[in-house]
Amino acid sequence: MPDVVGDSPASPPGVDAVVARVRAVVRPKIRAMHAYPVAKATGLIKLDAMENPYGLSGEARAEMAAAVANARINRYPDGSGDEVKAALREAQGLGNDVGLVLGNGSDEILQLLTMLVAKPGATVLAPEPSFVLYRMQADVYDLRFVGVPLRADLTLDTDAMLAAIARTRPALVWLAVPNNPTGTLFPAADVERIVAAAPGLVAVDEAYHAFAEATLLPRVLAFPNLVVVRTLSKVGMAGVRLGYAAAHPAWIAEIDKIRPPYNVNVLTQAVVPVLLRHGELLAEQAAAIRRERARMAKELAVLPGATVFPSAANFLLVRVPDANAWFTTLREAGILVKNVHGWHPLLDNCLRITIGTPAENNAVLEALARPA
User: Fold this and answer.
1) 105-116 helix and 249-258 helix, angle to the nearest 10 degrees
2) Domain extents in the chain
3) What is the structure's pLDDT at 120?
4) Cα gap 338→233, rounded to integer Å
5) pTM score of the predicted model
6) Phi/psi-derived region of residue 204, left when phi > 0, alpha when psi is between -120 and 50, beta in every other case
7) Is the CB of residue 245 less than 8 Å from the CB of residue 110?
8) Number of Cβ atoms within 10 Å of the Cβ of 332
9) In this predicted model, what pLDDT tens digit does every residue of 35-57 receive, in sequence order?
10) Class of domain 74-277
11) What residue ranges of the chain have pLDDT lower than 50?
12) What's the CA gap between 165 and 148, in Å, rounded?
């Protein structure tokens, strides 16, 4: 057992002493925040996190296993992730003129973009409700956050967005296309109007592009202030934690200055190129999810008191008479969904239900069809 340096106190400090030190050191804004909640799902049908419910083929698993077995985990990963970038360029049809930066999931890309614009007095703007980390990261970096409410039908209020841009001159605008947690697909023409009006950077978050079949990625260089953010999490690789941003190389060069040098680990860099070579399988799975989304929207809409909002993502937002009661009913049936009631007034009594396999989706319908 190694020697302990220095003399240990007779007893550890009391809770009050530690809390006092925390209060003295940590910013009040951080202390007032809550950690991003991640529910435990052991033993449950997991329909709360917009994951792809399908596994890999035997061939893909074998190739992945070989890649992992040969990974040099005793060495640091490639700091720039060139092999992964090459695989992404091939999979997405991107030329070398488009700059790419990799992240530990798109969450890290979000953090880096927020950090990039974090000057005193800077503003971050986004529609609301939308991905909660947009506001959360603005708070972390002491930026002013301006949320522009969606319309009552959860569509984008473009005129209100343009007015807020003119009024606040934001350094960063976030647009999730499709939007989370609503599933709304904002019209491309409206997105382009916002990009044109914004004085700073506009980040279009395309986490769910595979289910929307709509993207600005091929045109990312047509705009001087656009970055397209993506993740592989929703198309079957949530566990590898890889996100990326595509933009003009001038933007990417600035992001790279603040990116941790080894932020994407060796195992992720070994696995991702292998899995991207199985693009046909991933596309087939996305198509199956889109078909199930249409079926579930139709079936859920006939439940008493339920309103299903149009979705271009791999989940459905459903307004029900009592979200807490419906959530409990599903939880008692062994099904975990996301209760978003209380997140925002426009989400009152709403559940967000990820599209699973046909059997998982049938379990949801059967649980909700039982008498209360």
Assistant:
1) 100
2) 74-277
3) 94
4) 17
5) 0.93
6) beta
7) no
8) 9
9) 887 888 888 999 999 999 999 99
10) alpha beta
11) none
12) 10
